[in-house]
Amino acid sequence: MADDGVTGAPAEVGREGGPVGGDGAEAESVRPSGSAGSGAPAAEARRVRRAGETAQEKGSGLACGVAPDPAAGGEPGRSGIGGRSSPDGGGTAAAEVGASVPPARAKGFVRLMVWISLLGLALPAVTLAFAAAAFLSLPRFGALPGGERLGRVEASPQYVGGAFRNEVPTSRRAEGTGLADMLARALEPSPRKVPAVPLPSRKSDLKSLPEGSLVWLGHSSFVMRLGGMTVVADPVLGRYASPLKYVNGSFPGTEVYSAPDFPDADALLISHDHFDHLDQEAAVALRDRTRAAVCGLGTGAHLERWGWDGGRILEGSWWDSFDLGGIRVTLVPSRHGSNRGVRFDRALWTGFVVSGGGRSVFFSGDSGYGPHFGEIARRLGPFDLGMLDSGQYDAAWPQIHMTPEEAVLAAGDLGLGRYMPVHVGRFSIAAHPWDEPLERALLASGRAGGVRLVTPLIGETVMLDDVHALYRPWWRGLP
Ligand SMILES: [Fe+2]
């Protein structure tokens, strides 16, 4: 370091009477006293002290990596002398202290290494952030509402503080459960989450369903013929109900219907924008064969991104109704949430009541148990059949899905004589065995009395008027 000009100029300092801190100017200022550290008068000592302080201040600029300041005598080869300055200004003391301070160039080197290290850490983080942003901008994530649609969202009484709210205080997860815990819980390998054999099914012709009939397609998807209209609800054609391939695949034997099997529809009902209810593949496949989509406020932004004409998207708030000719579709409260990406609750989740041809059907969408069921019955009942969220429950998210026992309670609140457990039988989002919701629902409805269970096979036609139809527990005995 002695030849780099940063540690000063020893030869000159030696000539001028001692190792004085400071740049060349400092050496000049010390010279008249002979040696500031050899018994100079007090005034002279103070002057030297001030000079030393000045030198230190100038030297610190170099230590920060700032270019040498010629005005401070910091030309290359003679600068950096500040590193040898001492606050007490004494020549000898300066020499002693200077020996313990790292050379300015060394400080600069350390600083450079710190910056390089920080850059090394920041670069992967920035790259990761860009990659995540690019991934989340893929079409599968849909779109957030904007423009006029956002204006309608913001005007909704359910939209408070930048997000939709449930009617009653609702938490996505139990206290002490983080998002990562929820995800781990949902993906947790546990026995019998997925059936080990293909599930049994039928394949009704969806294009020639009789009036007053309904076909369950697994999970929360169904096709219904009511009031001379064809209604498709929450259809899923994709193999995976998630944004990632190989995550949350459908159960074996449940992919009974493909796009060409679907009928032209008068209404596509979308309860909310989660991947197991709003499937991009289905939304695109049915886009040009469906008269109108009906969904909660904001949800249409996804459809529009996927090529739907905005004029055919009927968005509403809870209790809004749309008259589609033979049927009337009313959006009703559910207790849940929405998101496809990282922004939560920007689109309204909903249940539906569909009435037509003298019949009425209730679909809960995804919902936790709550007082809304009683209110829906009071305002829109009675119903011929209800499809109630009864699966994918977990202690980690007790308020946004119902247990089978809660679904039986809800069926009572709704005044249902029969209900079909849905959100089961095709995708696993919770740790419980795949058939547990069906078995528990059967037991709970038996205990409750007054409500019968409708448990068709996937693809089996259910006649709404056939209130005495019996459905065997087809899941029993399957591994
Ligand atoms: Fe959901």
Instruction: Supply the number of helical segments.
Output: 12
Structural class, please? Answer: alpha/beta
Question: Any idea how many domains?
Answer: 2
CATH class call of the largest domain: Alpha Beta
CATH architecture type of the largest domain: 4-Layer Sandwich
Percent range of helical residues: 25-40%
| Radius of gyration, whole Å | 37 Å
Commentary on this structure:
With 479 residues, the protein is an alpha/beta fold. It folds into two domains: 10-106, no CATH class; 160-463, Ribonuclease Z/Hydroxyacylglutathione hydrolase-like (Metallo-beta-lactamase, Chain A, 4-Layer Sandwich). It contains twelve helices and 16 strands. It has helices at 10-15, 24-30, 42-63, 91-100, 104-136, 147-155, 179-187, 280-285, 300-305, 372-380, 404-414, 436-448, and strands spanning 159-160, 163-164, 213-216, 222-226, 229-233, 265-270, 290-296, 313-316, 321-323, 328-332, 351-356, 359-363, 385-389, 418-422, 452-453, 461-463. The strands form three sheets. The chain has a seven-stranded mixed β-sheet. Strands 9-10-11-12-13-14-15 form a seven-stranded mixed β-sheet, covered by helices on one side. Strands 1-2 form a two-stranded antiparallel ribbon. Fe (ii) ion binds next to loops.
